[in-house]
Amino acid sequence: MPPLRPVSAVEALAAALRERILSGEIVPGAPLPEQDLAAAYGVARPTVREAIATLVHEGILRRERNRSAYVPEVTAEDLADLLYARRPLDHAVAAALSGRRVPEADAALDRIAALPAGAPWSEIVREHDLLHDALVAAVGSPRLVRLYAALAAETRLGVAQLQASYPDRDVLVTQHRALLDGIASGDPDAVRQAVDAHIELGWHDLLP
Fold first, then answer.
1. Residue 208 confidence class, pLDDT cut points 50, 70, 90
2. For the HTH gntR-type domain, which residue ranges apply (predicted)?
């Protein structure tokens, strides 16, 4: 078993803020003044500045000149464009994996299903990311991984906004189980339909 890696104050603060953002506790547009965060978490402002820089780099915070960092709003139009860009990539991934199961993706979905009632939505977002990351990685194309990574932040924020659309987490589990089973079936029509259903059912309520 590998030794535990010490977690710095910057990493700990970034993790705490990330969980609050992806759980919807920090709403889009709400300012995050460095001084207020330093006081709330009992850390120095340089620590806050570095933690915010980490989350800005991940794309889940935005910082502009003369303005506190804030969570960017992913609008319905943003989501529609995001899915326009993602759809061909998702189809390419599914076609490349047709007839296969990806154990890491199945395991991530099992972890979502096993989460206790009332678990933070950020845990579902994290496992959802791992599920799709596992599918992309299984294709074996570094360039495809980079393309997906370029869309990852908006996808993550979009999934965070889906919380209201999934009062019953089992619906999300069922949709993703159908996606993985469709890919594993190896039938071209079933694979294509599974991807389309995943996109349209999962994001329908947030689209314009």
1. very low
2. 7-74
171 within 8 A of 44, measured Cβ to Cβ: no
Domain of residue 135: give its range.
76-206
Percent of the chain clearing pLDDT 70 (strictly above): 89
pTM (predicted TM-score): 0.74
CA distance 162 to 127: 14
- Contacts of residue 184, defined as CB under 8 A and 6 or more positions apart, other chains included, come to 99, 100, 101
| Tokens matching residue 34 | 């460095």
Do the domain assignments include residue 124? yes
The answer, yes or no, to whether residue 178 has pLDDT greater than 80, is yes
For 140-205, give the DSSP string: T-HHHHHHHHHHHHHHHHHHHHGGGG-SSHHHHHHHHHHHHHHHHH--HHHHHHHHHHHHHHHHGG
Q: Are residues 106 and 57 in the same domain?
A: no
Total number of domains constituting the chain: 2
Are 83 and 56 found together in one domain?
no
Does the pLDDT at position 157 exceed 60?
yes
Assign 69 to helix, strand or coil: strand
Tokens 């599914």 locate to 94
Domain CATH for 176: 1.20.120.530
